[in-house]
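Quick one, C-alpha coordinates below. Sequence please?
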Protein backbone atom coordinates (compact mmCIF):
# COMPACT_ATOMS: atom_id res chain seq x y z
CA UNK A 1 0.00 0.00 0.00
CA UNK A 2 1.37 3.41 -0.92
CA UNK A 3 1.37 6.13 1.70
CA UNK A 4 3.01 8.70 -0.55
CA UNK A 5 -0.07 10.92 -0.35
CA UNK A 6 0.69 11.36 3.36
CA UNK A 7 4.03 13.02 2.63
CA UNK A 8 2.64 16.60 2.59
CA UNK A 9 0.79 15.98 5.85
CA UNK A 10 3.91 14.66 7.56
CA UNK A 11 5.94 17.58 6.21
CA UNK A 12 3.36 20.05 7.48
CA UNK A 13 3.41 18.51 10.95
CA UNK A 14 7.22 18.44 10.96
CA UNK A 15 7.51 22.09 9.87
CA UNK A 16 4.90 23.22 12.40
CA UNK A 17 6.97 21.55 15.10
CA UNK A 18 10.05 23.29 13.71
CA UNK A 19 8.20 26.62 13.86
CA UNK A 20 7.21 25.88 17.45
CA UNK A 21 10.90 25.36 18.25
CA UNK A 22 11.76 28.80 16.89
CA UNK A 23 8.87 30.41 18.78
CA UNK A 24 10.04 28.87 22.08
CA UNK A 25 13.62 30.01 21.46
CA UNK A 26 12.41 33.50 20.54
CA UNK A 27 10.34 33.66 23.75
CA UNK A 28 13.36 32.70 25.82
CA UNK A 29 15.59 35.28 24.13
CA UNK A 30 12.96 38.01 24.53
CA UNK A 31 12.55 37.17 28.22
CA UNK A 32 16.32 37.53 28.66
CA UNK A 33 16.29 40.87 26.83
CA UNK A 34 13.54 42.09 29.16
CA UNK A 35 15.34 40.80 32.27
CA UNK A 36 18.59 42.56 31.33
CA UNK A 37 16.82 45.81 30.41
CA UNK A 38 17.79 45.67 26.74
CA UNK A 39 14.21 45.60 25.46
CA UNK A 40 12.16 48.71 26.17
CA UNK A 41 8.63 47.63 27.10
CA UNK A 42 7.27 51.15 26.63
CA UNK A 43 7.71 50.65 22.89
CA UNK A 44 4.31 49.50 21.49
CA UNK A 45 5.88 47.24 18.85
CA UNK A 46 8.08 45.49 21.41
CA UNK A 47 5.12 45.14 23.76
CA UNK A 48 3.05 43.53 20.98
CA UNK A 49 5.83 41.06 20.14
CA UNK A 50 6.16 40.10 23.80
CA UNK A 51 2.40 39.66 24.16
CA UNK A 52 2.25 37.48 21.04
CA UNK A 53 5.12 35.28 22.19
CA UNK A 54 3.58 34.99 25.65
CA UNK A 55 0.21 34.04 24.19
CA UNK A 56 1.85 31.32 22.09
CA UNK A 57 4.20 29.86 24.70
CA UNK A 58 2.79 30.55 28.14
CA UNK A 59 0.05 27.86 28.04
CA UNK A 60 2.68 25.20 27.34
CA UNK A 61 5.14 26.62 29.86
CA UNK A 62 2.42 26.77 32.52
CA UNK A 63 1.62 23.06 32.06
CA UNK A 64 5.27 22.13 32.52
CA UNK A 65 5.67 24.46 35.52
CA UNK A 66 2.85 22.61 37.28
CA UNK A 67 5.01 19.48 37.26
CA UNK A 68 8.49 21.01 37.43
CA UNK A 69 8.69 24.31 39.30
CA UNK A 70 11.53 26.78 38.67
CA UNK A 71 14.79 25.65 40.28
CA UNK A 72 16.72 28.42 42.00
CA UNK A 73 14.88 31.06 39.99
CA UNK A 74 15.69 29.27 36.72
CA UNK A 75 12.66 28.31 34.64
CA UNK A 76 13.33 24.93 33.01
CA UNK A 77 10.01 24.68 31.18
CA UNK A 78 11.38 25.84 27.78
CA UNK A 79 14.00 23.08 27.88
CA UNK A 80 11.35 20.42 28.50
CA UNK A 81 9.13 21.87 25.76
CA UNK A 82 12.04 21.78 23.29
CA UNK A 83 12.81 18.17 24.24
CA UNK A 84 9.14 17.25 23.74
CA UNK A 85 9.10 18.94 20.34
CA UNK A 86 12.25 17.06 19.32
CA UNK A 87 10.73 13.74 20.41
CA UNK A 88 7.59 14.50 18.39
CA UNK A 89 9.68 15.34 15.33
CA UNK A 90 11.57 12.04 15.62
CA UNK A 91 8.26 10.21 16.04
CA UNK A 92 6.80 11.85 12.92
CA UNK A 93 9.90 10.99 10.88
CA UNK A 94 9.96 7.39 12.09
CA UNK A 95 6.24 6.90 11.56
CA UNK A 96 6.49 8.17 7.99
CA UNK A 97 9.50 5.94 7.32
CA UNK A 98 7.68 2.95 8.79
CA UNK A 99 4.60 3.60 6.66
CA UNK A 100 6.73 3.85 3.52
CA UNK A 101 8.40 0.51 4.22
CA UNK A 102 5.18 -1.41 4.78
Amino acid sequence: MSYVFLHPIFLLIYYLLELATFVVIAAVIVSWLIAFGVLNMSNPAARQVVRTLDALTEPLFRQVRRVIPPVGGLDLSPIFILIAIYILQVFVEDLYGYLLQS
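The chain has one domain: 4-101. The helical segments are 7-35, 44-67, 77-101.
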